[in-house]
Specification:
The chain has about 250 residues and is mainly beta. It is built from 1 helix and 15 strands. The protein folds into 2 domains: about 30 residues; about 190 residues, Exo-inulinase, domain 1 (Jelly Rolls), CATH 2.60.120.560. The structure holds magnesium ion (MG).
């Protein structure tokens, strides 16, 4: 059969109209809108905090300003970090502290403050750290006009991931971390199955956007993973600087 231009135009037009409908280029009403509604299961109802920084009803309170009883020192004894004026402050050289409870996937809120009286430079100024699962360090540092290596400044995953921006407040001012952490998963033989991931919001700004961790924090050398429990205690670092903390809470995910 000989196809003239008109026939070719007509066939093409019909094809385009049908294809357009098939791929949803034109809105169509098909059946019942309720077909795409989901009514079960419903999310659990949780009472929000009075502010976004206040713990919601389902959070585990790790420090409420009054006592540090959720924490232990490196020997498993009550901590000697100072509880004063609603704050928990590093007792320099007393050692890191860790939670009594263990956590895996979590949402964590931590408020911290580096000393108003500035002492030291680089890594020796207002250094502490939040160690997820006791191993993966989100750096705390006075990074306000205090140059150091980019993957070691505040908001870095120490010696791994550089924060997207430096949103640091001046020393002596309170800052916040809101952290979403996904724990690594290991095979039975110890090999890594899936790496840990972390999202961090500092002072309301995203500084780590769902990044993969390369392994445990290493001060020297390349990070690597070593099999550990599905849940592990959270750790705060004593880096010999009197960094203060307040309003620490965590939600298991
Ligand atoms: Mg540190």
């Amino acid at each position: 059969m000989k196809i003239n231009n008109y026939t070719r135009w007509a066939i093409t037009s019909v094809f385009l109209i049908l294809a357009g409908q098939a791929f949803g280029q034109t809105p169509r009403k098909v059946g019942d809108s309720k077909l795409t509604e989901v009514w079960a299961p419903m999310p659990k109802v949780v009472t929000a905090g009075k502010t976004d920084a206040a713990p919601p009803a389902d959070a585990v309170i790790l420090f409420d300003g009054k006592d540090a009883s959720e924490w232990l020192d490196k020997d498993g004894k009550p901590v000697t970090w100072k509880v004063e004026g609603n704050n928990l402050t590093v007792n320099p050289f007393s050692g890191d502290i860790h939670t009594k409870q263990s956590f895996g996937d979590c949402q964590l809120h931590v408020e911290w403050r580096t000393p108003a009286i500035v002492k030291g430079d680089g890594q020796d100024r207002g250094n502490s750290g939040v160690f997820l699962m006791g191993r993966y360090e989100l750096q705390i540092l006075d990074s306000y006009n205090n140059p150091t290596y980019a993957n070691g400044q505040a908001g870095s995953i120490y010696k791994q991931r550089i924060p997207l921006v430096n949103i640091s407040r001046p020393p002596g001012e309170w800052q916040s971390y809101d952290i979403i952490f996904i724990a690594p998963v290991f095979h039975n033989n110890g090999d890594l199955k899936t790496a840990a991931r972390i999202t961090v919001i500092q002072n309301g700004v995203v500084i780590q956007n769902n990044v993969e961790l390369w392994g445990e924090m290493q001060f020297v050398g390349i990070p690597f993973y070593e099999k550990h429990g599905a849940k592990e205690p959270l750790l705060l670092q004593d880096h010999h600087n009197p960094v203060s903390f307040r309003n620490i809470w965590i939600r298991e995910l």
